[in-house]
Amino acid sequence: MYKINEDIPDQGKTIGKDYIRGIVLNTTSDTIQNAAILLKINDSICINTMTDFEGYFGVYYDQSKINDLSYFEVVKEGQAKRSVPFHIFIKDSTIVIDKIGKILSYDDYLSFSAKIRKCSW
To answer: DSSP strand E in the chain: where?
Structure first.
């Protein structure tokens, strides 16, 4: 469900046993399939995943590595990029994306998806 970035040494050891699950919705509460999601924990650790066919995603992480700057970033073709601080996300485990701001093209979506696999967005 998540992919560890092999380019960052020892990242697999810092993912941890904590698990968080969430859902991505649009402004009319429809679930969003295949949204690319990045959890940036700190400057050297990030985790990426995608939403499933019901709009859900989940990641394993190490709670002790989370800080005030940790955040989720979500992109989906035809929507604007959305960033949500981790401490906000854990309140209801929902990320709502919309069309306010720069609307992402399919190429933007593919580019982001490729870059987050290497934590290089």
So the answer is: 2-4, 18-25, 36-40, 46-50, 56-61, 71-75, 82-85, 94-96
Are 11 and 5 within 8 A, CB to CB?
A: yes
Q: To the nearest whole number, what is the mean pLDDT of the chain?
A: 87
pLDDT at 115: 87
All structural domains of the chain: 2-116 (2.60.40.1120)
The residues that bridge with 48 in the sheet, in sequence order, are: 3, 38
Give mean pLDDT, residues 48-67: 95
SS3 43: coil
Across 46-62, b (16+ Cβ under 10 Å) vs e yields bbbbbbeeebebebebe
pTM above 0.85, yes or no: no
Q: Which residue type does 4 have? A: I
One-letter amino acid for residue 49 of the chain: T
